[in-house]
Amino acid sequence: MKARSERPDSVLRARLAGTGHRLTKQRLRIVEAFANQRRYVSARQLHARLRAQTNNIGLATVYRTLETLRELGLVTTSQHDGETLYLFCAPAHHHHAVCTHCGRVDDVPCRAVARFERMLSTGLRFRLMQHQMEFYGLCARCA
Amino acid sequence: MKARSERPDSVLRARLAGTGHRLTKQRLRIVEAFANQRRYVSARQLHARLRAQTNNIGLATVYRTLETLRELGLVTTSQHDGETLYLFCAPAHHHHAVCTHCGRVDDVPCRAVARFERMLSTGLRFRLMQHQMEFYGLCARCA
DNA sequence: CTGAGTGCAAACCGTTTGCAGGCTC
DNA sequence: GAGCCTGCAAACGGTTTGCACTCAG
């Protein structure tokens, strides 16, 4: 929620180096371009934004970088209209409240998941291994 | 949960006629092919299954029919690996427990959603309009 | 008999991949 | 320097669309 906005490049460098990856100008620019916005973006949107800046970045590089970041746990994806949307977010937390008006994405505290889990295992006799939830509505600002 | 397995064609005919659609052999065959299985299938899988039967059905027809059924509220979709998966299911219930072993899909009773909603509106000050959840694990049979 | 529905093939579009050259480590 | 990374363009794969024909109402 806060640690990420400090020093994109040092954080990123450490994370990449630890996994045998390199810190390139392109990767840095891509991360800067969407690290601090709490919203889902498509690869094409990101590419368009970067293209507007300075010299060129290939669309394929955007895709490859996003996939790398996803492997590193820095990015979550979501599908929408046959398009993959990417969100720079804290690892291992997959409940998001998406504002349908401004697009802002907030993390959802999910204590209630444990309750769900109990209900499933007793009621349905279903052993929950993984869940995926997405919430849409209006954030505090837009309500 | 049960009404659908009775008479696919009469139910379907009524639903289609009421919305200005026609009951064709193809639509009937498509519905029969997956109405009673509680699992997500892709258009291609469905098409392959139908092709194995008797005379041909075009893949495009499968897509168009699935889209029509979705508009009628008889089918829910989910994305997986860039593919759209379709589930014949009760309208207006969007919480499913998917068995990762056998693929069976059960409805999830979701009383707890109200609790979530309350938490979101007070804690995050987020006005929940829509939510989408999917649960993966092992069903009673496979556990 | 009219037009919604169909089969086929081509078009579409988001994503991936092959390859020659570049730049990080 | 070695080889990971990049840009470009072509390939890929799921889905949609145009068109002439068919058949349900």
Descriptive account of the structure:
The structure is a homodimer of 143-residue chains. Chain A has 143 residues and is of the alpha+beta class. Chain A folds into two domains: 3-88, Arc Repressor Mutant, subunit A (Orthogonal Bundle), CATH 1.10.10.10; 94-137, 2-Layer Sandwich (Dna Ligase, domain 1), CATH 3.30.1490.190. Chain A is built from five helices and six strands; from the N terminus they run H-H-E-H-H-E-E-E-E-H-E. In chain A, the strands form two sheets. Chain A has a three-stranded antiparallel beta sheet. A three-stranded mixed beta sheet of chain A has the order 5-4-6, with helices on one face. In chain A, a hairpin with a 2-residue loop joins strand 2 and strand 3. In chain A, helix 2 packs across helix 3. Chain A binds chain B through residues 79, 82, 84, 97, 99-100, 106, 108-109, 111-112, 115-116, 119-120, 123-140, 143, and chain B through 79, 82, 84, 97, 99-100, 106, 108-109, 111-112, 115-116, 119-120, 123-140, 143. Chain B binds a DNA duplex (25 and 25 nucleotides) through residues 17, 20-27, 42-44, 56-61, 63-65, 82-84.
Secondary-structure element order of chain A, N to C? HHEHHEEEEHE
CATH architecture classification of the largest domain in chain A: Orthogonal Bundle
Mind telling me the CATH superfamily name of the largest domain in chain A? Winged helix-like DNA-binding domain superfamily/Winged helix DNA-binding domain
The domain count of chain A comes to 2
Compute the separation of the termini of chain A in Å: 22 Å
Helical coverage of chain A, percent range: 25-40%
Which outline of chain A best applies? globular
Regarding quaternary structure, how should these chains be classified? homodimer
Task: Identify the most extensive interface between protein chains.
Answer: A-B, 34 and 34 residues
Number of strands of chain A: 6
* Text of the CATH class of the largest domain in chain A: Mainly Alpha
Q: Spans of chain A with pLDDT under 50 lasting ≥5 residues?
A: 1-5
Spatial sequence of strands, sheet with the most strands of chain A: 1-3-2
Biggest beta sheet summary of chain A: 3 strands, antiparallel
Q: So how many helices of chain A?
A: 5
